[in-house]
Design brief:
Elements: E1 13-17, H1 22-32, E2 37-42, H2 45-56, E3 64-68, H3 74-88, E4 93-96, H4 114-129, H5 131-135, E5 140-145, H6 171-191, E6 197-202, H7 216-225, H8 233-245, E7 256-258, E8 261-262, H9 272-285
Parallel strand pairs: 1-2, 1-4, 2-3, 4-5, 5-6, 6-7
Antiparallel strand pairs: 7-8
Helix pairs in contact: 1-2, 1-8, 3-4, 4-6, 6-9
Length: about 300
Amino acid sequence: MTAFTKRSMEGEVVLLTGATRGIGRRAAQEIATTGATLIVVGRSDERTAKLVAELHAVPGAGSIHGEICNLMLQSEVRNLADRVRTKHRRLDVLINNAGAIFSQREITSEGFERTWALNHNAYFLLTTLLQDLLVGRSVARVVNTASDAHQTGRMYWDDLQFSKHQPLWGWRSYSQSKLANVLFTRQLAHCLKGSKVTANAVHPGFVNTGFSHNNGLLASAMMVLTRPVQRQDTKGAETVVWAAVSEEAEGVTGEYLYDCKPKEPSKRAKDMAAAAKLWDLSEDMTATRGDWDCH
């Protein structure tokens, strides 16, 4: 484990999506020890309630709150943001961690391919809706869970929803979404320049986080075969926690992080023209045009 110093977060508010399993659950357990008011977001009432009960028992834990949200749906993301704003009125750390890979292409009720809806649109929209709470703080952080899957990703600008291209058991759509996470983070850091808000993307490593549970026998078999090289979720969560609450991460922004330090992302992930294009498209897809001033 990498040694670092967790800040005391008493009186500060942290929001963590994808909190009930794997990396998110481990990150929640570590962040709870800082004394922060911690908002954990999950899809399941049962799993979220169980996690909240567990976190209340963590030594040094502050106030713990559970929120239920299907982040694939923008209507639910908007409702979540409204609840956070009403109940807490401040936000010091936002961790966009929820994500998934789906072997079968499906469209949400709002018309988006579900990998894109969950892994990118939710990140962009929730961050946008809560930006004033973040920027209003003296210091704040945004942490986006990405992946080295972005290394093989490309942006299918003419087909982001994969209506024409073969998704290859979900890999193409997943790797595209992870590339989008890194591009979004870099453009977000640019937009936040001059503020005291930092934005970083994190590669947690190859962690079995339950992605294969609903993706058939082939996905399950692959996870079994690759088990010797998989990381424990504790190690996978480490850099997320480092970026969110460590003293050492203060002032670090616009980076792609792995093992608690910057790592070189792919060439495509460093294309700021692509980052700006993605941002522009994301504003249209989330009906948030004009909410940011990135000039």
